[in-house]
TrEMBL record:
Family label: Belongs to the acetokinase family.
CDD domains reported in the protein's UniProt record: ASKHA_NBD_AcK_PK
Subcellular location: Cytoplasm
The protein's name in its UniProt record: Acetate kinase
Note on cofactor: Mg(2+). Can also accept Mn(2+).
Species this chain originates from: Streptococcus australis ATCC 700641
Positions that bind Mg(2+): N38, E413
Protein EC: 2.7.2.1
Pathway assigned to this chain's UniProt record: Metabolic intermediate biosynthesis; acetyl-CoA biosynthesis; acetyl-CoA from acetate: step 1/2
Role description: Catalyzes the formation of acetyl phosphate from acetate and ATP. Can also catalyze the reverse reaction.
Reaction equations catalysed: acetate + ATP = acetyl phosphate + ADP
Uppermost EC category: transferase
Keyword Cytoplasm assigned: yes
Xref: NCBIfam families: ackA (TIGR00016)
Length: 426
């Protein structure tokens, strides 16, 4: 069978989109491959992995989908291509991606892809884990759109694109919330009338679950390889980036997490406010006459590091500004560090101790200064870092006197999505 698709011509390193006829569902199956998809409102990140070896075959991103100044990055072991190109829709990006993978020789036929794993932001209370997407699950994901209006509808549209154009491929939904479904009511309920939970499902859901699950699995394996292996490690995972959250983990399960009903709750973030007095919102609306849509935008896009520093939501910019004595940058960093340390301290109580403090995410993995400042505030718990190990980005960064291990682990959400997808696609 032949099917009309679109490709990025990697052989000539031209990024022109053109129509071609590609072999579809023909040819000998060479190996099992999984495609991990992370779709945003105007982007589509992907990784193609060979399983079960977990080798990355190709990866990239379609950025600014729907805009004239769109960008495509496509990387394999043989090629690395980047160019501005207009991608009108996520559906078109899906066709370009699959066509390019075949045409460039990364796969010999579409049939080699046994499953596509999709990051889905919100699974509500309906999904305790990853699922194959059938009609029933499609409908549930759609119904949960009100809880994640900027994310779930996009993910669902991409899933439908794969099912429409490539019906032989299994689609798996991997939820950012499902890892936190092990939390007890004492941690996930808000002190509001219980009827709000019963009627409207108002509760803490937590996010970054795919990342925190990867950290839990990875750190457990690291500890098992040690001479005096310890089981059921008590972990606090700090996913610190433009979006930031912390998760208390025990026996490979989420005990508590900082993000709540929405991803705006908890820590101070790049441009999100984190936890604030909720009465600030009616004060701004009723007394200062701010329209509610402006308040929502302020809380999501103009607060956090950006709001306090009045210069950037990027921690790298603030660290640079600190060296020049910028007082607002200093204040923003101090507030960020303070909230991270306070949350870690409270989660030590939830876990009744701590074996491993883990830093991950863009800030957690790369900002040695922030790691050092956070741990300095936790000295009362017997934590301390080795300056040289911390600045060199070692796996372990604690010094000899620290009462718990302190690690820097690069998160890999795409690999976690691929593992879940492969498990459900066999």
């Amino acid at each position: 069978m032949f099917k009309k698709l679109y490709i990025i011509d990697c052989r000539t390193e031209a990024i022109e989109i053109r129509s071609v006829l590609l072999l579809y569902l023909e040819g000998e199956k060479m190996s099992d491959k999984i495609l991990a998809i992370n779709a945003g409102s105007s982007s589509l990140k992907f990784q193609l992995l060979e399983m079960p070896s977990e080798a990355v075959i190709a990866k990239g991103i379609f950025d600014r989908i729907g805009f004239k100044d769109g960008k495509v990055k496509y990387q394999t072991k043989r090629n690395q291509v980047q160019k501005n190109v207009c991608i009108p829709s996520h559906e078109f990006a899906v066709q370009v991606l699959l066509g390019t993978l075949v045409e460039s020789g990364e796969i010999h036929s579409i049939e080699e892809i046994v499953g596509v794993g999709h990051r889905v932001a919100h699974g509500g209370e309906s999904f305790k884990g990853s699922v194959l997407v059938d009609e029933k699950n499609e409908e549930i994901i759609s119904d949960l759109g009100d809880l994640a209006p900027s994310h779930n509808p996009i993910s669902l549209s991409v899933i439908k694109s794969f099912k429409t154009h490539f019906p032989s491929i299994k689609n798996v939904a991997v939820f950012d919330t499902s890892f936190h479904q092990t939390m007890e009511p004492v941690h996930y309920l808000y002190p509001l009338p219980y009827s709000l939970y019963e009627k409207f499902h108002v509760r803490k859901y937590g996010f970054h679950g795919i990342s925190h699950a990867y950290i839990a699995e990875t750190v457990e394996k690291i500890f098992q390889q040690e001479e005096h292996a310890k089981e059921n490690v008590k972990i606090i995972s700090c996913h610190l980036g433009n979006g930031a959250s912390i998760c208390a983990i025990k026996e490979q399960q989420s005990v508590n997490t900082s993000m709540g009903f929405t991803p705006i709750d908890g820590l101070m973030m790049g441009s999100r406010c984190g936890s604030i007095d909720p009465m600030i919102i009616p004060y701004l609306v009723e007394r200062q006459k701010m329209p509610i849509h402006e308040v929502k935008k302020l809380l999501n896009e103009a607060s956090g590091l950006l709001g306090i520093s009045e210069m950037s939501n990027d921690m790298r910019d603030l660290i640079q500004a600190v060296t020049k004595g910028n007082q607002k940058a200093i204040l923003a960093i101090e507030m960020f560090v303070n909230r991270v340390a306070h949350t870690i301290a409270s989660y030590i109580v939830d876990l009744d101790g701590l074996d491993a403090l883990v830093f991950t995410g863009g800030i957690g993995e790369n900002a040695a200064l922030i790691r050092s400042l956070v741990v300095d505030k936790l000295q009362v718990f017997g934590m301390s870092v080795n300056k040289e190990l911390n600045e060199n980005g070692s796996l372990y960064i604690q010094d000899a006197n620290s009462k718990c291990k302190i690690l820097v682990v690069q998160t890999n959400e795409e690999l976690m999505i691929a593992r879940e997808t492969y498990r459900l696609s066999l």
